[in-house]
């Protein structure tokens, strides 16, 4: 698919150069009506300036080094060498990380499996799951954060898609049902509460829960999950999403809407719409995902490198969530207009890696040889993987 895109761009550049040559021969009587009166020196200078502008674009659009599978594998290997510990009992854990970052980093293992079909990543998923259960048990109901539970629900459901495993399916079904039953209410017309204190209804639970429900529909075939996905998604659209594609943070029962936007919430809303579009074929879902992606790329970051969300315990890993669902929008939704931006971010992060090939979450800054959290370094690994097409994509795509 990318070969086609870059072939077109090369052809465009070639046509442009032919145009310049023709202009030099024919006198090019356009150009605000003045080019026909130019001296040969002036015309040459103008052509050189235009060619220089074209060259400034070409390295970014055409000649740019591509992030390949080998780079993603190397980044994953270095990340695991730095932060992953295997125990003698066959369980694995990410050093220093707790419940929901552990679930999200397990999703990166699922990403790697989807991109390579390599058994080593299927084994890694299993090790991470067993390590998670070893540390947090098989019943996660004592966690007051509904979004934490839903993240491990998604990790299990996606792992089940990658490898049919009844344990993954049972855990995903059990814990989605737990969260939905305790978090859904008719306060504010519906939606899921963020925590068990039932004070705010946040995008950070509703977006992921809609994704989880879609995947459960796919792996169980039970209509109720699709109905719940639509119900959750519709509520979020009506209450926490702007007309411009901004996904707002939360609706507080007392204080109203907090309009802060994050890569986490933009990413999960993109993902929820894409999942519903893939299941139902309804264009409105895809259109909403595109609008949210446009807002993220063009308004939040003006097409530049994502170099924010580096504070606190949670924010540093957020952009890895955006990477996953934006990448799926590219390859599963056919929205290739975001691929250049994704690759720009991946390349920048990789070029700014430290001597151990570790990338901190401030991708535009050089990663130093110092202490960083695994969670904050995981986002760039997700970015590198999710620039890549799924395994077998070019062979299976009808219209890549």
UniProtKB/TrEMBL annotation:
Pfam families assigned to the protein according to its UniProt record, in alphabetical order: Glyco_hydro_76
What is the residue range of the signal peptide feature?
Answer: 1-23
UniProt keyword list: Hydrolase, Signal
Gene Ontology biological process terms, A to Z = carbohydrate metabolic process
**Record's SUPFAM superfamilies?**
Six-hairpin glycosidases
Which GO MF terms does the UniProt record name? hydrolase activity
* InterPro entries reported in the protein's UniProt record: 6-hairpin_glycosidase_sf, Glyco_hydro_76, MUG_Protein
What is the protein's name according to its record? Glycosyl hydrolase family 76
The source organism is Eisenbergiella tayi
């Amino acid at each position: 698919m990318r070969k086609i895109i870059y072939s077109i761009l090369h052809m465009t550049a070639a046509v442009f150069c032919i145009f310049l040559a023709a202009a030099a021969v024919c006198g090019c009587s356009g150009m605000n009506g003045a080019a026909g009166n130019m001296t040969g020196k002036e015309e040459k200078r103008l052509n050189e300036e235009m060619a220089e502008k074209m060259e400034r674009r070409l390295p970014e659009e055409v000649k740019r080094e591509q992030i390949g599978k080998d780079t993603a594998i190397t980044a994953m290997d270095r990340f695991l060498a730095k932060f992953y510990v295997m125990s003698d009992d066959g369980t694995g854990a990410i050093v220093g990380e707790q419940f929901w970052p552990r679930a999200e980093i397990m999703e990166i293992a699922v990403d790697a499996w989807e991109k390579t079909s390599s058994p080593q990543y299927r084994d890694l998923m299993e090790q991470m799951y067993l390590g998670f259960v070893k540390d947090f048990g098989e019943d996660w109901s004592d966690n007051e954060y509904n979004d934490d539970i839903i993240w491990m629900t998604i990790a299990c459901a996606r792992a089940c898609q990658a490898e049919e495993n009844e344990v993954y399916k049972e855990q995903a079904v059990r814990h989605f049902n737990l969260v939905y039953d305790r978090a859904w209410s008719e306060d504010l017309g519906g939606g899921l509460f963020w925590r068990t204190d039932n004070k705010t209804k946040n995008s950070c639970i509703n977006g992921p829960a809609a994704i989880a429900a879609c995947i459960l529909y796919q792996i169980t075939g039970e209509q109720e999950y699709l109905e719940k996905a639509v119900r959750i998604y519709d509520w979020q659209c009506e209450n926490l999403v702007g007309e411009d594609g901004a996904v707002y943070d939360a609706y507080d029962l007392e204080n109203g809407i907090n309009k802060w936007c994050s890569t986490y919430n933009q990413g999960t809303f993109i993902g929820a719409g894409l999942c519903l579009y893939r299941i139902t074929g309804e264009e409105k879902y895809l259109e909403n995902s595109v609008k949210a992606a446009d807002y993220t790329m063009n308004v939040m970051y003006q097409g530049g490198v994502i170099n924010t969300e580096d504070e606190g315990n949670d924010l540093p890993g957020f952009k890895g969530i955006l990477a996953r669902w934006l990448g799926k929008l590219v390859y599963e939704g056919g929205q290739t207009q975001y691929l250049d931006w994704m690759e720009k971010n991946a390349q920048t992060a990789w070029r700014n890696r430290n001597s151990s090939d570790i990338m901190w979450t401030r991708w535009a800054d050089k990663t130093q040889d110092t202490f960083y959290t695994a969670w904050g370094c995981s986002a760039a690994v997700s970015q590198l993987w999710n620039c890549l097409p799924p395994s077998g994509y070019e062979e299976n795509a009808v219209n890549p």
